[in-house]
Specification:
By secondary structure, the protein is of the alpha/beta class. The protein is built from three helices and seven strands. It has one domain: 3-Layer(aba) Sandwich (Rossmann fold). The protein has a seven-stranded mixed β-sheet, with helices on both faces.
Length: about 140
């Protein structure tokens, strides 16, 4: 477990780079947990920046569930389950296929909605409000 404090978007980007620089071999799923507006999408933007994705603007996929961003070694799959209302077997099958792709990084916002269906070999990243401009980010 590692804990960081972010007081800005730049801090969150720096934390994302630290996470990507230290991500263990074989772990390609990052599950993001936290309240609305706590920084999950900002961390994903930082991950994209750390992987040198410059051609696309990373946006929350709230209305599409999944966005894909190509990088030199594969694809980042950015999944937002905020609007998911119940178990969706087809979506779970798609996520499993993404996880198994070579070079895939799968970032799942609101992962608690499918946590029981995700692999144990993942990183959980929890966001907590400290105050209006600061967040505690814990990586498990």
């Amino acid at each position: 477990m590692v804990t960081y404090t972010s007081s800005s978007v730049k801090d969150t980007e720096d934390i994302a780079k630290k996470i990507m620089d230290s991500i263990p071999e074989g772990k390609n799923v990052l599950c993001l947990f936290g309240d609305l507006g706590s920084g999950k999408t900002e961390l994903t933007k930082g991950i994209a920046k750390a992987l040198e994705i410059r051609d696309f603007k990373v946006k929350s996929p709230t209305f599409t569930f999944i966005r894909e961003y190509k990088y030199t070694k594969g694809t980042i799959f950015h999944i937002d389950l905020y609007r998911l209302e119940g178990k969706d077997d087809l979506l779970l099958e798609q996520i499993e296929e993404m996880i198994n792709q070579k070079g895939a990084i799968v970032v799942i916002e609101w992962a608690e909605k499918i946590k029981d269906d995700l692999p144990d070999n993942r990183l959980d990243v929890c966001f907590e409000y400290i105050d209006p401009t600061s967040r505690k980010i814990t990586v498990f």
